[in-house]
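User: quick one, sequence for these tokens?
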């Protein structure tokens, strides 16, 4: 675990809400597919990574699912411009199958409990390049720190 200072990064996202983690898992993929459908017909550079931003927690989880992009754009239906958060954040790297992401987030929560730092409530994941070998998948996990 480390503390990093992150700059805002432009994203194209779709926003959603969920009342449980199973509800979230049923919603994120169609939203991401919609973002990619939009990006395939835009002039934005799309060599960025997939992202998920969580604004709070269940019982009503507000989230954004999308892709890092090269600039701003006008909203198109459900796809809107946004940014990854900026500021100081707790960061951990998860390598391996996505099913292990919950443990990565749990380790950040434990770190908050033992260090006295306070989360601002927003957390996000930046997914590395796709690899068919699940053991090689890379996901950066960030939790924004309260000032």
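Assistant:
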């Amino acid at each position: 675990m480390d503390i990093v200072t992150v700059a805002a990064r432009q994203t194209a996202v779709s926003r959603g809400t969920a009342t449980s983690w199973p509800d979230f898992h049923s919603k994120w993929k169609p939203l991401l597919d919609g973002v990619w459908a939009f990006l395939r017909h835009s002039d934005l550079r799309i060599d960025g990574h997939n992202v998920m931003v969580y604004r709070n927690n269940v019982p009503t989880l507000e989230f954004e699912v999308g892709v890092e992009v090269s600039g701003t754009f006008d909203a198109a239906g459900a796809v809107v411009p946004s940014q990854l958060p900026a500021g100081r954040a707790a960061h951990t790297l998860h390598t391996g199958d996505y099913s292990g992401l919950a443990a990565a987030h749990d380790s950040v929560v434990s770190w908050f409990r033992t260090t006295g730092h306070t989360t601002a409530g927003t957390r996000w994941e930046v997914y590395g390049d796709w690899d068919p070998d699940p053991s090689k998948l890379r996901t950066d996990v960030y939790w924004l720190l309260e000032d």
